[in-house]
Amino acid sequence: MVALSMEVQKLKNYVDGKWMNVNKSKAVINPATGMEIVQVPLSDSDTVNAAVRAAGKAQKKWALVPAPQRAEVLYRVGYLMKERKERLSQLLTMENGKVIEEARGEVQEGIDMAFYMAGEGRRLFGQTTPTELKDKFAMSQRSPVGIVGIITPWNFPIAIATWKSFPAIVAGNAVIWKPATETPIMAFELAKIFEEAGLPDGVMNVIFGSGLVVGEAMVHHDDIRVISFTGSNDTGRNIASACGKQLKKVSLEMGGKNAVIVMDDADLDLAAMGILWSAFGTSGQRCTACSRVIVHEKVKQALEERLLAAMANLSVGNGLDESIKIGPIINQAAIDKIKKYIKIGKEEGAKLLAGGFELTNEHHQKGYYFAPTLFTDATPNMRIAQEEIFGPVVSIITVNSFEEAIEVNNGVTYGLSSSIFTSDVNRVFKAQRDLDTGIIYVNAGTTGAEIHLPFGGTKGTGNGHRDSGVQALDVFTEWKAIYVDYSGKLQRAQIDVES
Ligand code: UN1
């Protein structure tokens, strides 16, 4: 296990290639034990201003470094992450609570993103296009936007940061990054890796602090031309309206109410496993977590039996213990929110089949734990079937047809991920056309996106942009259209065209 020094370490900001102390700080708690693990700085807006000045200077030079050389730094970042995978994973489990196997998976997602985006350094494809006129050449190419701000959540503290920062860096931008204060260790470790990998000073700046101070300052700074945010719906909407007024580009990813559809021709054992993994993995604290099961009435009972049997084997506890399947919830406020929805679900008339309570016995020490919870007989418009709970709570809704299943799936304000279990190939193709989410799985649960595909959703999940995949470059670049006239004479577009 990674040894954290006995004395609680105070993390530092990383600005312009220097490690900077801040006067104010607060405790970061390991959600599995309730114990303080580090102190996270609470920075002010002056730090943001200083970082933006440094980033501005650094970006001008960075943009002139040929992209394959920019990519070299990302390759080194990837190899350093790989070397430190176990250390990073254990620290991730300590600060976030996710079980060690999932922590290793998340770090791997970051490593994959490093190598994938490093490869983009030799692509960053533009286009050539015919022109209307003779002896003229037209092309479009990506250019960096300048300084970009990224604001990342606690539930995937390293993977989501890589989805945003690596494409920004390879495209020639400088980054100001505000990680969540609940999980600052991954950001601190990644900043050290950037430094060791030889990223020039000022290209990546990590500022710890609250959304209301550091986040606000970033969103309102004139020189930060893009904000890429993953987090809560309310915060995302506030950021969007502030950015809208400033004509600042903003990319938002704000959660989901993801469903697994189980049709009457599905492999029910497989479906139960898929539901279990996507609903209770990461204790349900994923944007992509399954929180609704839409089941055909003919197989409802058989599915419930399988789910209950499998749920009985889920061990809940400290995720550093390899035998534990479900880790803690991030903090007491999150537990309270989950408890509120259990009460709402009962009042709405859904039937509680399993769980529904906080786990507080001695074995669970002072951490924050909640029992995996299954409601059934939920109806599509209940609040537990509409609102994001962000915990290990799933509600079963019964339908009578494929068409009804699609309608129920689409009948929420979110649109991130959906899944269907069926053995009918026609239903597979209809489902991929008709499900209205940004991510669709067939015969697999709602989680498990890979980094080289676009990640994001429709409707209330976001605002049309995508993280990861080559599409992420659209957030961090501007398109330039370039016309080269080699005719040696004035050729007027639309006018001097031979008919
Ligand atoms: C998130 O919950 O915001 O697809 C990210 C998945 C992971 C990423 C989740 N690869 O579940």
Q: What is the terminal-to-terminal distance?
A: 76 Å
- In the CATH classification, which architecture of the largest domain applies? 3-Layer(aba) Sandwich
Described by the principal axes of the CA atoms, the overall outline is globular
Highest-level CATH class of the largest domain: Alpha Beta
Number of extended strands: 22
Hetero ligands: 2-aminohexanedioic acid
Tally of DSSP helical segments: 14
In CATH terms, the superfamily of the largest domain is: Aldehyde Dehydrogenase, Chain A, domain 1
Major beta-sheet overview: 7 strands, mixed
Per the CATH scheme, the topology name of the largest domain is Aldehyde Dehydrogenase, Chain A, domain 1
In percent, how helical is the residue content? 25-40%
If you average the pLDDT, what whole number results?
Answer: 97
Gyration radius from CA atoms, angstroms: 24 Å
- What structural class do helix, strand and pairing data support? alpha/beta
Instruction: Work out the strand percent.
Output: 15-25%
- Estimate nothing, just give the exact number of structural domains: 2
Strand order of the largest sheet: 15-18-19-14-13-20-21
- In the predicted model, the low-confidence regions spanning at least 5 consecutive residues are none
Organism: Oceanobacillus longus
Active site: 253
InterPro entries: Ald_DH/histidinol_DH, Ald_DH_C, Ald_DH_CS_CYS, Ald_DH_CS_GLU, Ald_DH_N, Aldehyde_DH_dom, ALDH7A1-like
Family: Belongs to the aldehyde dehydrogenase family.
